[in-house]
Every structure is written in C-alpha cells, then in structure tokens.
Q: What sequence folds into this?
C-alpha cells in the first residue's frame, strides 16, 4: 500500500431537474458572475442553455457565454474563453457538456491569474497556484472530468494532446441529471462507456502487491457499467441505467480506484498520440481499439492480475490461468464490439496509420519510455501494439 | 436511484509517519492555534502526543490540550473542551484517537459559536451554521468518524446516546498512519472491525430497486475487511492488513455506500439504547450481538437482498434462496465469533437485560417506529429482537 493524499473537492448535486437549481447552487458559493462554456448545437437546441440562464437570472447572477467546444478541445478556444472570463470579470467558469467543454473551462480557469499563454501550464512552464473555480452541468457520461483533477487540450499546430493535473482542476460543483443524457446517441453513449471503463482499467492494471480495496472498487465499477451499458443502449431513457453510467463515469476518474496505488495511463498516452494526429478520432473509440491490443501484448507479463480480471470482472473461469487471462481479454474485446466500437485502426477510419510517426511521438523519438511497472512500454513494444491494431 | 448531494470535504493524508507532518499539514490550511483532544493513556505513553506537539512547535502553531476521552463520549467532557477552545482562541480542534475523541471534538467545534449548551445541537434546539474546523490523527480503525458527517455523545443523566449529522461535522483533514494501530489490542481491533462492517451493512440492507453501484461498493468493502481481519489479528503489525482496515473504516462511513439510496441505521439505534443504559458496553460488541438477531428477524421480509448478501459477500451458494439467505447470516455470525465477539447480551455482560426499558427507550414509549422500509421496527419487533439476544 502506497502513501497517498486524497481530496475530493467537488460537491455533487445528482438527480432529476437539478440543472434548474443552477443559480441557487452557484449562489451557495457566494458567486455572482459567471461565464458559460458549452459545445455545439444540442445544449442550445434542447433548451438547456436557456433553462440554465433563466435559473441564473432568477437569482441575479450575471452571465456571458461562449459555445463551440468540440471533441479534443483546441487551445484556440481556451484562449478565447480566458479572454471572455477576464473581460466579464467572471468569478466562475460554468461548463455545460462533457469532457471537452469541461477541460477547456479548466485550463482557462487555471490560466486566469497567469500573464503568459495557457499552454505554459500543460507544457510545465508555469505551475498555477490559484485560478478561477469551475462548475459543471454534465450532459454526457464519459470523461469523468466533472470530478477529476486532470484536463487535456489539443495544440493543432504540432498535433499534440497535452494534459495537466492539479487540485485546481477539481470543479467546485457538478450538477448531474441523468435525464440530460437520454438524447446522447448510441454511438456517443458507447464511446463514453469505453472511456469510463478505461479510466478504471488503466488504474486497475497498475500492479499492486496484492488485491487492494481500490481494485475491488474498480471491479465494482466495471461490473456496474457492463450491466447498465446494454440497458442504456436498448432503452435510452432508462433512468437507473443512465444514473449508473453517470455515477460510474465520475467515480471511475475521481481517484477512488487508485487509492494506495501508483497511477499511470499508458494506453491513454498511446491514444492521445492517435487522436492528436487524427483529430476526428473520438478518444473512447481510439481506446477501444488500443486497449485489447495492449492487453494481448502485456498479459503474459502479469498473468495473475489479468487472470483475476477475467474471473472477477469478465466472469471467465477456465482452469489454466494464462488461458483464462487471454479469454478474459477476448471477452472484453467482444463486449466493446457489442457496443458497436471499432476494433481496428482501419475501422476507426485510419486505413494507413503512420505508425512510425506515432511511435516517435509516443517515445519522443525513442528517448522516453512510457513506464509500465511490469515491462517498459518502449519503442519496440509501442510499435508491436500499434501494428497489431491495423 | 434517489437524488442525492455528495460532498467529501475531508482531505486525507495516508501513510507511514504522516503524523510527524501534522504541523506542516495544519499550516497548509492557514491555521495557527489548536486545541488537542485525546483519550486516556496510550496516546501519551506511546510518545505520539509528544511527537505531534513537537511537529506543531516546529512551525510555530500554538497548542493546548485536554485528554480523557472515553468510549461512548460524555457531554461533560465536551463542555470542558469547548471552554478550553474558547479560552485558547483555538482555530481548530485536533482529535487524536478514534470515534470518542473525534466525536467530542466535533460537538465542541460545532458549539463554538453557539451561546447555549452543546446538547442543544443533538437535541435539535439549535442548528449550527458555522463552527470551528476539526482535524484528526487516527489511532484506531473503527468508527469512521474521521470522514463522516455524524457525531454521537452520551448524556449520562438520562442514559441517552444522541447524535447529529451536519456537513460541519466533516473534519478538515484526517491523518492516517496504519502503523499507529499496531498496538490496538486484538479485542479492540475486532470491535472496530464489527463497527466498520456495520456501517456498511446497515446501508447495504436499506432496500433499493435494484443492485446499486453503492451496494457493489459496500460488497467490496465488506470482502476486503473480512480478508484483512484475520491477518491483522494474527499479525498486528501487518501494514497492508492494517491499511485496508483503516481505509475501509473511513470509506464505510463517508457516504460512498449510500450514494443514491436512503439511509437509516436501525441496528445502530437499537445498540445506542443498549450502550446508553450499559455504558461499559463497547458499541462494536453491542452491534455484533444485535445485528445477526436483527437479520434473523428481518430476512424473511427481503429474501432477495439477504440472498444476494449471502452469495456476493459471504460466498454461500445453496439453491434455495431463503435457506441461502439464512445460511449467509449464520456464516456472518460465525465470522463475528471468530473475531472473539460476544454473541449474546449475557456474553456482553448483561445477564439480566431490562428489555422493556430498552424497547420503551427505542420506541419512545411505543410512540416512535424506527423505520424499516420492508417492515417497521415497532414495539413488537424490537422486543422480539432484543429478547432473542439473551
């Protein structure tokens, strides 16, 4: 068991209609001026934005807004959002949406008191010690950014996805109404399911001396997601299934499943390279392609853990541990397929992947080893895994 | 799934030697004056108190102290602690110990800005909206008070244990070093194990429409405790087992296992009556006697949930659901016995329990029904359960 600090700062307001209390909730924190950030289309069309603004007006909270958040949020929009927050003297940036809107809001908020460019923060040129708080109205269960301390943005010139972790990144509050996710398409729902599973799986497969309580929490989350997933896909307005997915997405990424364990996210790093180069690739879909390939490469080096995963999560019970471990991975792959996920780079829309470029990017020209506690993810390993995804 | 708010305010510092950073940790929160509250003996004898004071001195934090916390903390000591905190102009009350020291600290802290008696708060005559913050250095894994929003004290004149829940009760920080629990006796360790299991079990058996993620978290905690318990008893300095118990005790009572569910604690209420009347009864031991009896009375009204408990937690797999449910309860009872817990009121040192008094106290003379969602815990039910414990 590793020493750790744990601090979940985000206050969660969960349930039907909670978004209509946004103004009242923000007032609780003594905040009077906000800038709203959201994505394209649905937040406006569904009337959600209007309802939120009405709720703010009701308690006299001043607000301005900026839309346009897209998957794999770009730094340009963050700069615009930061400018607006300063002009408006905002006391909070309120993101309505999923990971993209939230992550842009986080970086703009963390940059508020920094004189230089927001990119200085993910590039480690500046470490912020204060920032504006953020708040979230969640509309898709996926990224878990609503309770996490991390944020990721894309720098389009160099095709680089960069992230940074900071306690500043934990939102002040997250308003979660599962009904808001009823209209999320089956494909987007599936991508979200992969995303939240992956936040859990990557933490789970960081080896621990023994089965930690954190690993049991991870198994709980994975089983709950896999039970709720087909229900939510078949019946998009099933409140309980949507609720389970929403809670699972947040708790998968808020630190619960890495209590007492080291954290690393090698497959996320591999995927960020892919969706940095091919920005039209949704993060979750990229993960669905890469993760089984990563497992099939690595399971031989940690048969016990992969076998435990097969037994406790995938309900596979063959006698031979190694065979069982492999069958568990294949069953997970079939589960991803059942969600309609692509299983190859070709199916992801990348028939001719530039694997050498990706390996170079991941390993920084061969100079960086993306750590794995069992076997280092070096140039050769990366190449083998990317190549096996074609 | 029920609507809910969730806010875990307590910052956790977990690991070997963390208590030596107490001063530095408190400084992080901008606090310069503290009153320390602790129990009898071991905190002083072990040198822990001295080490903490040295750590405070090192960063110039002013401190005063009051010892004497006992199991089932009494209101007199709370009044004394409150007085000291005011005299010393404390900015934080630091509890060193377990539930007793922490709960006294919580009530004194919540009373700080109240002109009347601290008892006004648990008796609902005064609802505090601000108080002093509290901090914790945990020395026993049991009560879970270090992250919870609840506190319980005893009013010796009327032999009443009264509690109150408030966000104010959540400590500002909890310093947890499992090594500090190495010297906890096997009996006290066992009592703590029952206590943390009971915080989980009571929430688990509040019926839910379906298996909630919260219930899966509960199962995870219970399994982890039952795995770590015999190790910690056989090998008191097993760091991993002590770590698991410490984390389990906190997470069992911090709200994780009641996300989206109603909360009620009927067996805690039954036990508070017992240890109110017989203050020498340790809370955990009382629970070990009462809970199996409560289960054996109630399982027929919710066979599905008790059967699930038998399968998922106790690993009992008989074909007949009702028989399986019963066998799961009996296996839990055997587990409590294996910890050295008493299984009857007689074994608890109460050979002639005043059952009518207890029933009257619990039901307020028959006027109050301690709710159970399946079958009300009324006078008759209470009498049957208490009587079956003799």
A:
């Amino acid at each position: 068991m590793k020493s750790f600090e744990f601090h979940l700062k985000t206050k969660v307001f969960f349930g039907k209609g909670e978004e209509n209390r946004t103004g009242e909730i923000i007032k609780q924190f003594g905040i009077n001026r906000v800038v709203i950030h959201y994505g394209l289309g649905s937040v406006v069309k569904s009337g959600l934005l209007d309802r939120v603004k009405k709720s703010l007006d009701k308690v006299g909270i001043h607000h301005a807004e900026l839309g346009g958040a897209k998957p794999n949020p770009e730094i340009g929009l963050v700069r615009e959002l930061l400018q607006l927050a300063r002009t408006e003297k905002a006391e909070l940036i309120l993101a309505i949406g999923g990971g993209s809107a939230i992550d842009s809001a986080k970086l703009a908020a963390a940059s508020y008191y920094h004189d230089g460019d927001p990119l200085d923060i993910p590039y480690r040129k500046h470490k912020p010690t204060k920032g504006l708080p953020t708040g979230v109205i969640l509309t898709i269960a996926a990224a878990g950014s609503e309770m996490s301390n991390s944020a990721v943005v894309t720098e389009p010139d160099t095709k680089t996805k960069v992230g940074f972790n900071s306690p500043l990144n934990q939102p002040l509050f997250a308003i979660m109404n599962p009904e808001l996710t009823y209209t999320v398409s089956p494909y987007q729902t599936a991508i979200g399911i992969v995303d939240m599973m992956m936040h859990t799986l990557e933490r789970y497969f960081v080896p621990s001396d023994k089965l930690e309580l954190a690993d049991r929490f991870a198994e709980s989350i994975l089983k709950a997601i896999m039970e709720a997933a087909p229900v939510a896909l078949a019946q998009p307005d099933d409140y309980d299934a949507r609720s389970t997915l929403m809670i699972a997405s947040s708790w998968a990424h808020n630190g619960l499943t890495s209590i007492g364990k080291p954290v690393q996210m090698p497959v996320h790093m591999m995927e960020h390279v892919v969706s940095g180069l091919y920005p039209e690739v949704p993060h979750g879909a990229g993960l669905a392609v890469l993760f089984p390939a990563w497992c099939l490469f690595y399971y031989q080096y940690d048969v016990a853990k992969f076998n435990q995963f097969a037994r406790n999560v995938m309900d596979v019970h063959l006698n031979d541990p190694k065979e069982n471990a492999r069958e568990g991975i294949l069953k997970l792959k079939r589960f991803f397929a059942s969600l309609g996920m692509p299983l190859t780079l070709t199916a992801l829309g990348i028939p001719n992947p530039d694997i050498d470029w990706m390996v170079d990017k991941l390993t920084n020209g061969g100079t960086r080893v993306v750590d794995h506690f069992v076997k280092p993810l070096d140039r050769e390993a990366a190449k083998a895994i990317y190549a096996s995804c074609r």
